[in-house]
Amino acid sequence: MRSGSGSISRMRTGVDLGPRPAPHAVPAPPPAAAAAAAPAAAAEHAAAARPASPARLVRRYLSCLRWREILVLQGSPLLGAAFAMGEVTAGRVAALAVLTAASCCLVAHIFVLNDWAGMSADLKDPNKQAGVFAARGIGRREVGWLWLALLVASVALCGWLGPRPLAIALAIAGLSALYSVPAYHAKGIPLLNSALHLAGGILHFLLGYSLFSAIDRRGLEIACYFALVFVAGHLTQEVRDHEGDRLNGIKTNAVIFGKTTTFAAGLAVFTLAYVYLAVLAARAIVPRALVSLAILYPLHLYWSLAALRAGLTFDSIRSLRARYRALYTIIGIAMLAALLLES
């Protein structure tokens, strides 16, 4: 071989000694997206990694339910049934028991669906992180089956009660889906979210009323009272959740219009509800003795102004809600007592 002629330099060595292209860089996820995804992914991984006995698993599922909220919201349909029940018989008491079970399942379905749809947002909300179902060892898939099972149970029980309760229960479930399911997410559409609560409040009262009576003008007029209270409570809750909703970009009334404006609107609707109940009593749509319940309004107003002075913080609104719920418990008991005295 002739080294001087350059033959050796032209031979293939099998090793590429030339410059190599730089490796393709994999773009890192944006810091905000990574931070948002991390809690949800970690919670789901933790939920999937915890094997549990059947008894413990049942307790975990039950821990996903907002028992206090579920029980509080039974007042409306049960009072609806009371207003339409008439003579108390064993058969009607049995039907009322089935209605209670059906309504509990329906309200539980609504809350579980809402929690399932809002898991990622709740994990980023400091006030809600501890209550997210994934923190209790339950995965998103399992909670999906839970809200579906609760809906099926409610529909089955309402179907046994008759076509009117069944139709109303399905309508309530439809409103809940519009409010919570990500494809629609009316929770983040100002005013529409309150309109859904207004319709839902009417329907929830009529769920009980329709068990013993056809839906008539009297039933609708009384239902409007419960709907006003429901809307006012929803506006107040939005004020409580303002910081978390703003952090997650959820355009509630409180986020768009401000906490003070939304709180004032909620208080105005509460005020209207007290006035409306007095008008119903004066017209004998409800027992006339219920006009005296207006005496509770100054206490409600005082507590509301105290929350306003405290800056409408999460804790001050939570305290206010506990207090006015006690007032509405008194109102509910008074309604039931007045109906019993009139019968």
Give your account of this protein's structure.
It is built from 15 helices and no strands. It is mainly α. It has two domains: 50-214, UbiA prenyltransferase (Tetracycline Repressor, domain 2); 216-335. Helix 4 (75-85) packs parallel to helix 9 (192-212).
Q: What is the architecture of the largest domain at the second tier of CATH?
A: Orthogonal Bundle
* Tally of distinct domains: 2
End-to-end CA span:
122 Å
β-sheet strand percentage: under 5%
> In CATH's first tier, which class of the largest domain applies?
Mainly Alpha
Query: Biggest sheet, open or closed, and with what strands and sense?
Result: none
What is the CATH superfamily label of the largest domain? Answer: UbiA prenyltransferase
- Radius of gyration based on Cα positions: 28 Å
Query: pLDDT average, as an integer?
Result: 85
Contiguous runs where pLDDT drops below 50 for at least 5 residues: 1-38
> What is the approximate shape?
globular
CATH fold-level topology of the largest domain: Tetracycline Repressor, domain 2
Structural class: mainly alpha
Q: What is the number of strand segments?
A: 0
The string of secondary-structure elements, in order, is HHHHHHHHHHHHHHH
Helix share bin: 55-70%
Number of helix segments?
15
